[in-house]
Amino acid sequence: MPQKRINIQDLERNSYKAMLTLESYVTNSQLPALLPQLIKIRASQINGCAFCIDIYTEEALSLGETERRIFATSAWKESPLFSEEERAVLQLTEEITSISKNGVSDKTYEKVLKFYGERVLAQIVMQIVMINSWNRIAVATHQGFGPLA
Amino acid sequence: MTKRINVYSLEPAAYKALRGVEDYTRSSQLPVLLRELIKIRASQINGCAYCIDMHTQEAIKLGETPRRIFALSAWKESPLFSDEERAVLQLTEEVTFISSHGVSDATYNGVLKFYNENELAQILMQIVVINSWNRIAVSTNQIFEPQK
Question: Inter-chain contact B46–A100, Cβ cutoff 8 Å?
């Protein structure tokens, strides 16, 4: 069993308060239903955040997402279960999450812009940035490790 | 580089909220130059030219030497960084490349050897917030004035 690590929420309350303010901005944005969950699940898969995957798959199911689509998320490129809009957002999610590789291509950027417009694109970028932050905190601190509740 | 959206003018609330996280890191007890090392190294890895430009200038202003900044991308082989700094730079790389291997016990414990748990939490948040700024800047082609 991996060792227990620090709990940032307890140690640095102000950091959490600031992060939750950012989270509530993202939650209050105008993104279509279930799109935030796809973003959060895919980024958490890439970043290897088991804790986050567990939370956000449960959240997605409770909001009406299907198990079948969630199972397909890690192979969305080859799956017929996602719309063109969702595919554009998933591509952007992957490029921003793996930003050090090639940045974000014009093609990917333009596609999301075409479907959603500037304002929602900005919100999508922030959703991707936000989940990348939670993923980094959770993975680095072994958040949620331990026997199942 | 084609012009892209400005997230901060389109979504001022996003900027304000992220700025809140940044302000938290500024209020932390970490040595200022350590914070700059984290910011510059993460920006190098994430390929954020805008951020590198901003934070190298900031570092110089705060008293960092050009020589150490030049060495930063090769810090592992450089004698210019202390053991404390090396521990933090290793953590910076592993958190920035979180998808590769997560954060190893050796790296995590390496930082705890030099810093207490609160400081470790602060260091981690500094790495997380620069990764956020990097992602926004790179994905939106954020630019700076080259003639400056």
Answer: yes
